[in-house]
Amino acid sequence: MNEIVTIETQGPGLYDFTSQVRPLIPNRAGGLLTLFCQHTSASLTIQENADPDVLHDLNAFFRRLVPHTDHPEMSYLRHRTEGPDDMPAHIKSALTQTHLSIPVQDGRMLLGIWQGIYLFEHRDAPHRRRVVAHFS
């Protein structure tokens, strides 16, 4: 079973899409859910969904770790065709994950109590991101 989950982003940040994934899991099913991001400038993560400061701090850390190409420290980068946020977005995606595996038991994901599934948007502009959900 392959399903596509679409996430509309409004620029950089973490977008919780756990509620879009839950209905895709068959009732009473057990197995493994694999999520795959079909983009090279966004990624996936499982992260805390209780304290919004965690998401804020992750965004701040990655902005500081990999600034835009117009920042003096990034002058060595060559890929600039799609704007100053594009190559840093590829780097952030390479440092994180483009796929996740989540165990499923009795029709529910075995996420921890404070965990949610997030698309991590690395580009400045809004995008429509696609994530493939495969259950086996």
Short synopsis of the structure:
The protein has helices at residues 18-21, 52-65, 86-95; strands at residues 2-8, 13-16, 31-37, 42-48, 99-105, 108-109, 115-121, 128-135.
Can you describe what's shown?
It is elongated, with a radius of gyration of 16 Å. The model has no long low-confidence stretch (mean pLDDT 96). The chain is α+β, with helices and mostly antiparallel strands. β5 and β6 (108-109) form a beta hairpin. The protein is built from three helices and eight strands, in the order ββαββααββββ. 21% of the residues lie in helices and 36% in strands. The protein has one domain (2-135): Jelly Rolls. It has a five-stranded antiparallel beta sheet with strand order 1-8-3-5-6, with no helix packed on it.
Structural class: alpha+beta
Mean pLDDT: 96
Strand portion: 35-45%
CATH class descriptor name? Mainly Beta
CATH architecture: Sandwich
SSE succession: EEHEEHHEEEE
Annotated CATH homologous superfamily: YjbQ-like
The domain tally reads: 1
Report, as a whole number of angstroms, the end-to-end distance: 8 Å
The profile of the biggest β sheet is: 5 strands, antiparallel
Any idea of the CATH topology?
A: Jelly Rolls
**Cα gyration radius (Å):** 16 Å
Query: Helical percent range?
Result: 10-25%
How many separate helices? Answer: 3
Question: Can you tell me the residue ranges where pLDDT is under 50 for at least 5 consecutive residues?
Answer: none
